[in-house]
Specification:
The complex is a heterodimer of chains A (178) and B (101). Chain A contains 6 helices and no strands. Chain A has helices at residues 2-30, 34-54, 58-82, 96-118, 137-146, 150-171. In chain A, 73% of the residues lie in helices and 0% in strands. In chain A, α1 (2-30) runs antiparallel to α2 (34-54) and α2 (34-54) runs antiparallel to α3. Chain B is mainly α and 101 residues long. Chain B has one domain (5-95): Helix Hairpins. Chain B has 3 helices and no strands. Chain B has helices at residues 5-25, 29-54, 58-88. In chain B, α2 (29-54) runs antiparallel to α3 (58-88). Chain B is elongated, with a radius of gyration of 17 Å. The relative contact order of chain B is 0.13. Classes of the chains: A mainly alpha (178), B mainly alpha (101). At the A-B interface, α1, α2, α3, α4 and α5 of A face α1, α2 and α3 of B.
């Protein structure tokens, strides 16, 4: 009995988070004002973080909120504030036939992906037992990062450095201008 | 009604498809960048789902790597947009066609 109750709660949380993500994503791609888009993108990211919790990945859920809902959204909002919002045309969309073609192509690819994913339902779907390591998965991710994946990890630190330097170079004020 | 792998994969597919539609239909650079973020998120969700499915944290480590690369991409992408806006005064990708043959 307790099993079915917790299963129902799990299903309810999954469906509410899924609806939250999908609605937020729909607003992101359809809003005319991109500050609205940016704020709904936060909602979508928080929903995805909730999905990570359901998938027993609490560390990734935290990183998702810190990096996406925190850092990346601050970047987006800062950028919008740095630019003169009056000059922008946020509502720009494709026009005419090419627009319906693009929409059909996107919808076909989305349907293909959904069909492919739902075919997993017919194969073996039970979750493998999650090997519990106290205090959780964070310890295992940390151990993996510094042993098996130490080289890619260090390469990523170089990539971050390169990204910071190039972003600063690109966004600097031009000499003579302003 | 127990939630299986397919549920999470379908949700990720829907999010990916919405991001793809955003990239295809919208012409504003910032919205396109946000749609790319949506797609990266859904790819991450698939990685974490299979990490849970196989009982192996490798997928989570890779999702972490994807997040780092997404952060780099956003920082550089937004810097390019800022430089572009200073030079061209527009964010409409159809008007940024100086390199188009």
């Amino acid at each position: 009995m307790a099993g079915t109750v917790s299963e129902t709660i799990y299903a309810l949380s999954f469906y509410s988070l899924a609806v939250m993500c999908v609605v937020a994503a729909l607003v992101v791609i359809s809003a005319r004002n991109y500050v609205v888009s940016a704020l709904w993108l936060v909602v979508c990211f928080v929903g995805v973080a909730g999905i990570y919790v359901l998938l027993k990945a609490p560390f990734l859920a935290m990183v998702q909120i810190l990096v996406y809902a925190g850092a990346i959204m601050v970047l987006f909002v800062m950028l919008v504030m740095l630019m003169d919002a009056g000059k922008l045309e946020p509502g720009a969309r494709l026009q005419g036939v090419i627009r319906s073609l693009a929409a059909v192509a996107g919808a076909v690819i989305m349907l293909a992906l959904i069909t492919l994913s739902s075919s997993m339902a017919r194969s073996k779907t039970e979750w493998s037992p999650w090997p519990v390591v106290e205090p959780g998965t964070t310890e295992r991710i940390g151990a993996d990062l510094f042993t098996r994946y130490a080289l890619p990890f260090e390469a990523l630190t170089l990539l971050l450095l390169a990204a910071v330097v190039s972003a600063l170079y690109l966004a600097r004020r031009q000499e003579g201008g302003e | 009604m127990s939630i299986g792998v397919a549920h999470f994969l379908v949700l990720a597919s829907v999010l990916f498809g919405l991001g793809l539609l955003g990239v295809l239909i919208r012409r504003n650079v910032i919205i396109i960048l946000m749609s790319i973020e949506l797609m990266l998120n859904s790819a991450n969700m698939v990685l974490v789902t299979f990490s849970r499915y196989l009982g192996d944290t490798t997928g989570q480590v890779f999702a972490l790597f994807v997040m780092v690369i997404a952060a780099c991409e956003v920082a550089v992408g937004l810097a390019i947009i800022l430089a572009l806006f200073r030079n061209k005064d527009t964010l409409d990708v159809d008007k940024i066609n100086i390199m188009k043959w």
